[in-house]
């Protein structure tokens, strides 16, 4: 028997157990070089990757350690009697190996794999193997099977009173593209239910949940979310409380550091979550541009077909709209700055970024046309009417009020520096990826007031010494990191004499 | 600045750095969700996967921790000033992503990848992605390029005085197949140089180095190895002191837990090491059987072609021999028991396992035919002559003497239990994988006296209650584990009435 000890090390979504190298059970437990063990206490069982500890101050030889998250998942108290068993191979192991060997899997195989992943029975290395194997060969039938398996693995939402539940999703990569916060109040003002759950940023400078949190509380539970939607037809909340696709959370945690992003995985990830969230109608915004996720019209066409095929098969009415992904949308990058842009559009202010406004209207228009009364192109006009009349703004205030005040008052970071053009010319292009990285280094989204305020967009003339954008940060260390990266390369390409593009 | 701290946790071949979640540098360092950082001290730089620590007793907020092996690789003293930088993507990153995307890589790409892997710049997850991507699609030209890159990444051995340097390699999976310890003294007695470096067991119950260590010291450095080979023409030493293929050590550390074993990777792994070891002529022993690594004649033929193609291209004269892989070889499984079998063969004792003797003679014969004087089939007769005359035994004693006495006297484990047949019949098959697992659980190779002594082989009649094999162990915990697994299923299939196979 080994005494259970909580080890104050974070291992995220991978279960990790710690054992002293001096522990007599060690050699038998690590016996197959598999690096995995099963931890048992009473009827509880948990599969974990095994790390060996040499320092008795971290873990005495008669103890078994579990990392923070693993300890929480195991749910036993410190000091409990535990023992180790040899790892029973996950029941999906054969399917995983068949996929690695390049074979096509049936839906039962995907269900077994997704169940094991959702329950943290795979190591990070096994998850990576699954992702790469899927990336190398996957039929459309498999993408559909994976989508279904992922949708069913989560806790689904149901909206029994609403025959039509709409949603939108942007496949991302474009900083500042905060259209959801404008589309939701427009659509809700029209009366279509749009219960929007959003993520926080993982690799970007702001997710919709981060930006909405500047204006209102976003951490509401499922019951409160239902009440808000019943009353205001829409909401803009963080999806973290609702486990729509627990397997996807694990897949993403490995996909991101690897920086791989396969089409099939993306389709399964997005559509499984929308399905689990109870959506019936969905608009996908697909920005195309040289530094966006989708970089060519051919790519976009292929991806659109895949979305439509899978969406149709799982009973989602789905429209894909292609949008300009050549530069950031609006002027702000980072929660506070993006919230400023959003409110400027809703308030119909003269300085509202026109691109953010037009994109939002186009998307809202497409969604409104899911209403049979607006079919055939009347959506855009209705969206404009709701925005211009102030109805959308009133709806947004209603939603903010129902969600409650933000957890803290966020203001623009007081440290700031302008990045200037080093020669006269015209802005030819803006590297979305680089701008996002600079904003991220400045502290966004952890510091909501950090980010970038764009002072020139593509096509604008600029003279040497005039500002291209302003970096904002809340803290010195982050500020220096961001300014350092911007000094290496601003992310702007300025050409010509400022009169004509080359 | 952060003070360097050594963290008494073992992370093997993956560099891992630890940072307190309360450290102000944390958010900027972990900024891209990449999970990797660069650690700097003076001109030293090291790429590591980042883990966050919540417990200040493990790591205070003003410190940077490195795991045992990472600390050793970094080579700085505790308390040194260190700082973190954003990870510069490894220079092979593009190549890795191209391979993941299914493209063919050129040799320069493989060299960059192997260099990054050998220098621990890849996380385990990236290594897994590379392995699976290679497993899913790899041309023969790529296998050759990978082999060359891996061979050149290590410290090569050179034998300037010997135009012919022979070696053998068994692709494994068959317990007890300890032919090297018989082949080396035969070949060396003939006068062909055979400087054998072997591994310790990773997932098997004994490697050649583990078994040889029962008889002699195997940890000799490169200079001593040269002296021994100069004097006795052969040696049987552990290869761990010679870094023949550092990238392969990293690849294996991920491949094994994943339990994937692709053909191309196997060929590159084996041939790169032989090339780096300075071998000119090589015999590959390929056991084929239902529980061996290679399971069919078609598989064997394809793999043989690949070995021959790559071997030829890198200048290795190479012969592949197919052998029976249907059951363990000899009677013992585990270091002490296998050493017993080896010496019985060399001493021409009546109880020597005939299968181990015949396989060794066949392999030695093939190797001896690399001597122009013995070409055309005279090798086997010469091998038999050297074994029967006692010349091989004398050569073995000479090698043992030169390598020195074993570090400790290993004796057969005193805990033992017989596993018996539960009905009359004839042994139809023995599951190599299961027997290896039982021997491993009994403590082999860590306890050299642990293992399995086979009392029946395939074809032998047995009556209910008669022993099939005997488990030996040195320690109580291991003994119970092994007996438990054997009780679940013995690994033997016994059919019929003991007179005729079904």
TrEMBL record, chains A, B:
One of its GO terms (cellular component) is cytosol. Keywords: Glycosyltransferase, Plasmid, Transferase. It is an enzyme of class 2 (transferase). It comes from the Bacteria. One of its GO terms (molecular function) is 1,4-alpha-oligoglucan phosphorylase activity. GO terms for biological process: pyrimidine nucleobase metabolic process; pyrimidine nucleoside metabolic process. Its EC number is 2.4.2.4. It catalyses: thymidine + phosphate = 2-deoxy-alpha-D-ribose 1-phosphate + thymine. Belongs to the thymidine/pyrimidine-nucleoside phosphorylase family. Type 2 subfamily. This is Putative thymidine phosphorylase.
């Amino acid at each position: 028997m080994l005494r259970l000890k909580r080890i104050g090390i974070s291992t995220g979504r991978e279960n990790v157990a710690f054992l002293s190298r001096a522990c007599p059970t060690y050699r038998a437990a690590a016996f197959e070089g598999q690096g995995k063990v099963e931890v048992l206490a009473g009827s509880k069982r948990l599969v974990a990757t095994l790390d060996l500890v040499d320092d008795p101050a971290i873990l005495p030889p008669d103890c078994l350690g579990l990392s923070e998250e693993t300890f929480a998942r195991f749910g036993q108290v410190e000091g409990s009697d535990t023992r180790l068993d040899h790892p029973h191979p996950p029941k999906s192991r054969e399917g995983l190996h068949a996929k690695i060997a390049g074979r096509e899997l049936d839906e039962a195989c995907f269900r077994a794999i997704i169940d094991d992943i959702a329950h943290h029975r795979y190591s990070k290395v096994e998850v990576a193997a699954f992702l790469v194997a899927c990336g190398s060969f996957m039929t459309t039938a498999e993408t559909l099977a994976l989508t279904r398996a992922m949708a069913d693995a989560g806790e689904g939402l149901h909206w029994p009173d609403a025959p039509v539940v709409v949603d939108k999703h942007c496949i991302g990569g474009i900083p500042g593209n905060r259209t959801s916060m404008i589309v939701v109040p427009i659509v809700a003002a029209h009366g279509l239910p749009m219960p929007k759950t959003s993520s926080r940023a993982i690799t970007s400078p702001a997710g919709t949940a981060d930006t909405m949190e500047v204006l209102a509380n976003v951490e509401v539970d499922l019951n409160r979310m239902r009440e808000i939607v019943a009353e205001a037809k829409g909401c803009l909340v963080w999806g973290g409380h609702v486990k729509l696709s627990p397997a996807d959370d694990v897949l993403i945690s490995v996909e991101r550091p690897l920086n791989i992003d396969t089409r099939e995985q993306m389709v399964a990830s997005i559509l499984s979550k929308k399905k689990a969230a109870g959506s019936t109608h969905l608009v996908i915004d697909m920005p195309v541009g040289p530094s966006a996720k989708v970089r060519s019209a051919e790519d976009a066409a292929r991806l659109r077909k895949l979305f439509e095929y899978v969406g149709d098969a799982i009973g989602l009415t789905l429209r894909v709209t292609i949008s300009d992904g050549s530069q950031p949308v609006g002027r702000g990058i980072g929660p506070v700055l993006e919230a400023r842009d959003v409110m400027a559009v809703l308030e119909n202010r003269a300085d509202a970024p026109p691109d953010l406004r037009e994109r939002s209207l186009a998307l809202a228009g497409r969604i409104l046309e899911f209403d049979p009364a607006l079919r055939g192109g009347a959506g855009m006009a209705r969206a404009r009417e709701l925005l211009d009349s102030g109805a959308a703004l009133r709806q947004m205030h209603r939603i903010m009020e129902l969600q409650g005040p933000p957890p803290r008052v966020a203001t623009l970071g007081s440290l700031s520096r302008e990045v200037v053009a080093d020669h006269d010319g015209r802005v030819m292009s803006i590297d979305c990826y680089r701008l996002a990285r600079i904003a991220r280094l400045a502290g966004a989204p952890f510091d909501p007031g950090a980010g970038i305020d764009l002072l020139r967009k593509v096509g604008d003339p600029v003279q040497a010494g005039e500002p291209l954008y302003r970096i904002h940060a809340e803290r010195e260390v982050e500020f220096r990191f961001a300014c350092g990266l911007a000094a290496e390369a601003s992310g702007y390409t300025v050409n010509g004499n400022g009169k004509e593009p080359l």
